[in-house]
Specification:
The chain is of the alpha/beta class. The chain contains 14 helices and 12 strands.
């Protein structure tokens, strides 16, 4: 079976969100591939050195190198690893993870070409990024969506008597978590019964800022910190609406999971979300940073049980395409 080195940030052991290096990496292992992952080092310099060492250590037996590519500092990890792979004549496959990679293409066009033009294949988990890369002139790019094991998601259609909002993401300014608190405040100001639970680890100090805002506005919010998938899926049983408040995004797995669980999703209309959600069909899309638009969508669902049923059923059908038993054959075709 093929030997794969998977390069990315494997930092769930220090409280960060589980990323694809752990999920996709494990899926491939379960299919019989030999997968070595790097890196779990918390220090950025040591992490980079560990990535380089892993490539060199596995040089003679490596068939493919998978590289998670984001738009900020991690972009430079991908750059250095891709240059090393080219020098060593290793086939490498960048996986486009960062929702703001389109901006990176404009900001660093020459460095971007070094990574993506020399790749064996570029994989875009979202059709949104695929279209951006094609417009930028990149030819060697295919779409393979983020994936879940659908059998692990119990589907239930919710009734919405009291409004119970769920938000699941790492706390980052890009994901605009404070908007969720402002939405709750606006609903409660109309004397409507509503609650909010926010699940996820802190990424850039946004968690404390969001907690401070909830205290300032005088609204009680449950902050759970990081939970495992199993834990937050269990928690989701007590909630009936999922809100995604992000300003920049790709195709978030948490939204796919919410759709699989039967939670109606209300999301900002940014990045790859319009490729995932057909508004009023399998979710509702609203403008970014718009409290009133979120509130109107929430109240609309509360007052229309038939729309909740329609959206939930259609969402579950939509995410069947993200099931590993479907997606895996696309990976097999690359790694054959």
């Amino acid at each position: 079976m093929k030997h794969i080195v998977y390069i990315g940030n494997k930092l769930s052991h220090v409280g960060k969100t589980v990323t694809s290096i752990e999920t996709l990496g494990q899926f491939l292992k379960n299919e019989g591939y030999n997968v070595v992952t790097s890196s779990s080092k918390t220090n950025k310099v040591f992490r980079m050195l560990d990535m380089l060492y892993t490539i060199l250590q596995n040089l003679k037996k490596t068939d493919y190198v998978l590289i998670d590519v984001y738009s900020t500092s991690n972009f430079y990890y991908a750059l250095i690893i891709s240059v090393l792979c080219k020098m060593l004549k290793l086939k490498y496959v960048p996986i486009l993870r960062g929702g703001a990679l389109g901006n990176r293409l404009k900001k660093s066009p020459k460095l971007s070409k070094l990574i993506f033009n020399n790749a064996y294949e570029n994989v875009a988990p979202s059709l949104y990024l695929m279209s951006i890369f094609k417009e930028a002139g990149f030819k060697n790019i295919i779409h393979i969506p983020n994936t879940i094991e659908l059998q692990n998601y119990d589907f239930n259609i919710r009734s919405i008597n009291a409004i119970n909002l769920l938000w699941v993401r790492s706390f980052s300014n890009l994901y605009n978590p404070k908007l969720a608190v402002q939405i709750l405040k606006s609903i409660r100001d109309d004397n409507i019964n509503a609650s909010l639970c926010m699940i996820g680890p802190d990424n850039d100090g946004s968690l404390e800022d969001t907690k401070a805002l909830s205290e300032t506005l005088g609204v009680k919010v449950e902050f759970t910190g990081k939970l495992s998938k199993r834990e937050w899926h269990k928690k989701a049983e007590d909630y009936n609406l999922f809100i995604n408040t992000t300003n920049v995004d790709n195709t978030p797995v948490s939204v796919i999971e919410a759709m699989a669980l039967g939670l109606p999703v209300i999301s900002t209309n940014v990045g790859g979300l319009p490729h995932l959600i057909d508004s009023d069909i399998n979710g509702i899309l609203v403008p970014p940073d718009d409290i009133q638009a979120f509130k109107a969508a929430i109240l609309r669902l509360k007052d229309d049980p038939s729309l909740v049923t329609q959206i939930s059923n259609n969402a579950r059908k939509k995410v069947e395409a993200f099931d590993w038993n479907t997606v895996k054959y696309q990976w097999f075709s690359i790694l054959s």
